[in-house]
What we know:
single chain, alpha+beta, Heat Shock Protein 90, globular
Amino acid sequence: MAAIGAASRQGTDLPGLAPGTPSRRVFPGEARQLSLVRRWLASLLPDCPARDDMACVATELTTNAIRHTASGRGGYFIVEITNLGSVVRVAVTDGGAANGPQVIDDPAGEHGRGLIVVAGLSVRDGVSGDRRSRTVWADVPWAGVGDAEPAALLNQPGATASRALTVSCRRIRSSLLPSGGTHSRRRPG
């Protein structure tokens, strides 16, 4: 990952996550680990809407590592969280795959929209690596405890579709992230 600049080192006050110092954990490449990832994040970050966004993004990235890479075939994945000030970065390193992450634009499909959710909840995202190992990361805005919900931003001039997606994700979060279970989607009706 890129070096963290001096301005980013100031960071946001997150008691479990020192500014500029990554916290990482290795998980077996099994779907049942997703709830452990969410609990680990909850131990590092205070309870607020930004933590919920971080949990959603981390779950999407780790689900992709398990489903689409060697991590899910007897391997492992690494989750790294870094407080960069106005954003908190989540990076997931997997066991590699022949192809990189792909966005599937199929509104009727049951799968393939995870990276769209990640893009909607983050201000930046990216990928590095190759077939042997790949790191997918996203910078999630950190509003912190007590700050305004992004829903209020939709009523301001210049509101974006990305913000609309953020609000939509919050409304359906319970169906995307059932507590204690693996990532699943429920069909309406």
